[in-house]
What we know:
This is ATP-binding cassette domain-containing protein. Pfam families: ABC_tran (PF00005). It comes from Streptomyces griseosporeus. This protein is about 25% helix and about 30% strand. It is α/β, with parallel strands linked by helices and about 290 residues long. The protein has a domain at about 220-280. Strand 8 (about 195-200) and strand 9 (about 200-205) form a beta hairpin.
Amino acid sequence: MHRELRLRDVGRRYGPRGRWVIRHVDLAVAPGTLTRVEGANGTGKSTLLRVLAGLDAPSEGRVSGRPRTAYVPERFPAALPFTAAGYLTHLGTVHGLSRPEAARAARAWLERFDADAHAGTPLARLSKGSSQKVAVAQALLAEPGLLVLDEAWTGLDTAARDELDRAVAERTAAGGAVVFVDHDPRRLGGAVDAVWTVADGTLVRRTPAEDPSEPGPCVTVVVQGPPPPPDVLRMTATATETAPGTHRLTVPATHSDTVLRALLTADPPRHVVRVAPATPPTDTPGTHR
């Protein structure tokens, strides 16, 4: 069971006389949600993410309800005495997996990010892109309840960025929460549930629709059969039953592959009638969000 993470009047500064990097932060991160954090350089985004991930303790205030958490930093500490596979296996055991389970998960995630050829390569000899793939894989292999991504897409090739988008969709569909920072305002457009801006050390919330870069491209999926499963509905912007047994889903393009796979592998499998581009949806009565 995933829990809601809550920050209550949280502040963080470095040293007893240091300036406050963030202060009076109240934030709730619910299971199954995707949250973007944005703001100018130096405003405290990374500090907030480190507090969310449990790497930094708040200097004041309280954090409660933290689930099992994984974090991808902007800069991966590659100078560690491990090979890529050895590091992932080690982290898997730290997260509670048995060593054989951790080794299998390590291989699977390296394959997903097309980095299996580097399984035996020492971390210090990996390229920036390959190091980042390992950093992302270590956060995903234990299926965390909270995934915190600080510019995690930086350095990844196009295929790996798309794979990370799909992995984020899978985490939220499974009931996990994801909080991320990324320099691309279109990242995961259409799938974001909340956007928080860090300014002068405080948080201001706005809806994704207030940003002209949101909600991003969507696709329409027409499917026949029983109502879509809950994990599919969590990834849709709208879902409408247009006729008995026929459902029209509006899905963020970043999540479309994951939605289609979930529909086709559901029990019973749903029949996908049509997939086509759609204009960004707006909520109307009788729709699911």
